[in-house]
Amino acid sequence: MSESKDLSRRTVLGRAAALGALAVPGAALLDACATGGGGGGGSEKGTVTKDNPLGIKEDAALEVVIFKGGYGDKYALDAEAAFKKKHPKATVKHNSTQQITQQLAPRFVGSNPPDLIDNSGAQALDMNALIGKGQVADLTPLLDAPSLDDPSKKIRDTLRPGIVEAGQYGGKEVYALNYVQAVFGIWYSSTQLTKYGIQPPQTWQAMLDACATLKKNNVAGWTYAGKYPGYVHYWLFAQIAKVGGKEVLIAIDNLEPNAWKHPAVKAALEPIEEVVAKGYVLQGSEGLTHIESQTAWNQGKAAFIPNGSWVENEAKGTTPANFGMAVQGPPSVSAADKMPFGTIWSAPTEPFIVPKQAMNSLGGMEMLRVFLAKPQAQNFARQVSSLTCVLEGAEGVPLPPGVTSANAALKAAGANNTVNPLILTWYAKLVQDIGQNCGLLMSKRISAADWITKTQALADAVASNSSIKKFKH
């Protein structure tokens, strides 16, 4: 697989924001949407019935665009086939791409966007710009529609906690339906840790001790994707919340003055600064892509890697048998931490949107209703070893060790000890820039104190920029 395809694997939640890539291409085109032509705008409409609660026009054409990254697009083709079975008069046009913005931004300008978009990858459309220009439909009618599995339940009642809120962007309207439930944290091989007599470290002292033991055996403690250093976020945000409580992340999301200067941020950064200072990071990690760092980890060159639950499917080509892939949340810094060990960052990813000017926006929502039926959620879990946003979507599906571990961590944390920083979806470019600071920290070019100063300056610049739409909890 080429590096460009590997990079495109990322979803907009963290995988676009945390990659530390360039600003989202096509933003200027999206800005032109406000003055684009007046075509589209309004949906083909049919008759509302018990079997057609959204009132779609049964013979209307429907166009779906899927981001074809690490999840592929077969799951979408299968859902489209199920849609066709339910609505045999409809015609469905399927497109898949890794260049979402390049292909679709001009269509928003021309007021002829497709009806359903999987807005994911490093080249995802800028949601801040789309929402600011009124280009995305409110999905509330979909959420209030009956589930295909149990018509007595609304779609919203079949989803995991936090899914609806993740698509709201600070208001009541729901602009995105995130299809995948990702778990972020510190990943390791249980087989490797057992080999060296190491227990998964629940404190940072235990982490440092583990790294010292590994170093004696010519194994690095950590590796990371140096070329896309925002991967460090997948541990850091949960660490900040664990130390200082969820309110610190809320202040960061809200761009509050000096939010990044909260003592919890410094306390969260200092342990990894010590890991770096003691030489516990795999030499050369600074120059590795996410695929290369995952491969080095799979080869046993390093024990711990910050990553998300897609890693098992993405790295399966280089993962040895009996690797025992597993994930944990951040270790405890001290007894004064506000949240317990087991605090985990879990967030909805892979956002699907329905453009407001789509010719068949109701059809786009009906297609999503099919995606959210249990057979399609189970099909997704079976194909790509990942959890969907459907609460019971993985029931009856055998899952590999990494996803089993992620699911167990999610259940153990519960709603109280699960965190989800929204800054990554609200201000993707800001988080890309913060990712660059993470790279500087991991390569010993700046200190934790310098990181905080630089990051606060980036957040202040966004907060004072009136051209950027702001969201609040």
From TrEMBL:
- A Pfam family of the record is SBP_bac_1
Family statement: Belongs to the bacterial solute-binding protein 1 family.
- Return the InterPro entries for the record: Bact_solute-bd_prot1, Chitin_NgcE, SBP, TAT_signal
Q: Which UniProt keywords apply?
A: Signal, Transport
Q: Which gene encodes it?
A: ngcE_1
Recall the taxonomic lineage recorded for the source organism: Bacteria, Bacillati, Actinomycetota, Actinomycetes, Mycobacteriales
Q: NCBIfam families of this UniProt entry?
A: chitin_NgcE
Q: Does the keyword Transport apply?
A: yes
Full protein name = N-acetylglucosamine/diacetylchitobiose ABC transporter substrate-binding protein
Q: What is the annotated signal peptide range for this record?
A: none
**Subcellular localization, as worded in the UniProt entry:** Cell envelope
